[in-house]
Amino acid sequence: MTSQTLNPETLAARLASELNENPAARRILLRTLLTDDFLLLPSKVDSLMDLPAKVERPR
User: Fold this and answer.
1) What are the φ/ψ torsions at residue 28 (nearest 5 degrees)?
2) Is the dihedral of CA 30, 35, 39, 41 positive or negative?
3) What is the pLDDT of residue 47?
4) Which of 2, 10, 17, 20 has minimal CB crowding within 10 Å?
């Protein structure tokens, strides 16, 4: 086995391709790289989107 060094662009393209083909690996990588606060954003945005329906406006 020979050792190869990939340039950053090739490495990024290869990683993106692999992650597009493997959603489970994508979830693992995102969980490793992102903070809990960032990972919770979708649920926070969903609850904010529901807010206008819950707020009664004065007449």
Assistant:
1) -65, -45
2) negative
3) 87
4) 2
